[in-house]
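Most newcomers find our protein records easier to grasp once they have seen one. Nothing more is needed to start thinking about how sequence determines fold. Here is such a record, shown just as it appears in the course material:
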Amino acid sequence: MKPPIDRESLDQDAPYIAVVTGSSSGIGQAIALELARRGARVLIHARRNVSGLMQTANSIHELQSTIDSDRACRGVVADLSSSQSIFELTRAAFSWYGYINTWVHAAGADVLTGAAGELPFEDKLELLWTTDVRGTLLLSRRVADEMLRAGVPQQNLLPSMVHLGWDQADGGMEGDSGQYFAAIKGAVAAFSKSLAKTYAPHVRVNCVSPGWIQTEWGRGASSAWSQRSRDESLLNRWGDPQDVARLVAAISMGDGEFVNGQTLNVNGGWRGGSSAVRCSDSRDARPTLN
């Protein structure tokens, strides 16, 4: 593996450049806005939610009103299940400023809301595998290679990458969603650690694993699921996308230079629960014998 570029004459005043996939809504959107709030120029991405992507872009422009709009934020629409789209997204990102300080892989298939929420287990698993595992792995490898080649202009920073996992992937959770999310996000977390070892000491790679975060599904969850989310956290509340965003920004933008190859949970402290939610509108209740 070749070393990164020589850093003898580098620009310490160069802007901090970040990419956040899946930044048209939810946790990805919150991460993009938090990075922008801290001064990063952010390339944002969506698969097809163009209106959400525009909303993110407009919010970034408000945060960085003194910067030319095209230099503060750029949006890219790409389907990460396509190898060609992965190549084009990577090329677009690195051609913007020529380097990337932080790449956050927040994109993931939504199989809990909308039409996808009604799909059978096998189809949901396929969607999650294609986007969350295959897409993340292929994109991460390409991005890490480009990070190694391009380096960054700030001598005191290493390029970094952040993946999103799930805090219950190791311990498991009952029901359909527990089965496919534990398998999918467990794979992402394991890959993240392996990528960190592969590209050390030139690129940092970490995995941030949210717990019960009140995204779109959480806002429409039943009272039983809402109670469970509170009961299983030591802080006795839902998490907010901003809780995840602040940690991602903290470990990415200079405060976490000695944090590498880690999986960091954002769940308010895991209390655990003794029983499953059993409600008529959920497929996730434990099976019962007739």
